[in-house]
Amino acid sequence: MNNIHIRLADWQRDNADLQRIREAVFITEQAVPPELEWDAEDAGAVHFLACEGDYPIGTARLLTDGHIGRVAVLKDWRGLHIGAELMKAVIAEAERRGLQRQFLTAQVHATAFYERLGFTIVSDEFLEAGIPHVDMVRQSQ
């Protein structure tokens, strides 16, 4: 576990790894329909990969407006703070790009995780792909 690092990913070059992780977490585990998982935003997004050595185990993406999404860590690596490190890298990149306001749509069960990273719930609960979600926002200092 001491060889975990986060790196920027390229949608074209790293596509197989990005898709493998998101398919495992969202499509297989959470039964999100593939047509809802893949969208036109991927091509222009900044993607991130969390890797153990050379093996990608987590991902996230940042859109040009500060929207963070598609945060996923493979099941066998959960509980090891990889998601937090991944999110810290995304937030740092957003701030580096001048995006002082970051926002996301969080699965309700994960709201405490995002609150620890400075996000606040700003909506009522709603269903997305059949899963309860809320909107959350973080304002950089």
Q: In the CATH scheme, what's the topology name of the domain at 4-99?
A: Aminopeptidase
How would a textbook summarize the main sheet? 4 strands, antiparallel
**Number of helical segments with 4 or more residues:** 4
Shape-level CATH architecture of the domain at 4-99: 3-Layer(aba) Sandwich
Bin the helical content: 25-40%
Number of strands: 8
The end-to-end distance, rounded to whole angstroms, is 31 Å
- Output the strand order for the largest sheet: 1-2-3-4
Beta percentage is 25-35%
What is the structural class?
A: alpha+beta
What is the overall pLDDT average? Answer: 95
Outline: globular
Query: What is the N-to-C order of secondary-structure elements (H for helix, E for strand)?
Result: EHHEEEHEHEEE
Q: Poorly predicted ranges (pLDDT <50, ≥5 residues)?
A: none
CATH superfamily of the domain at 4-99: Gcn5-related N-acetyltransferase (GNAT)
CA radius of gyration is: 14 Å
Which CATH C-level class of the domain at 4-99 is it?
Answer: Alpha Beta
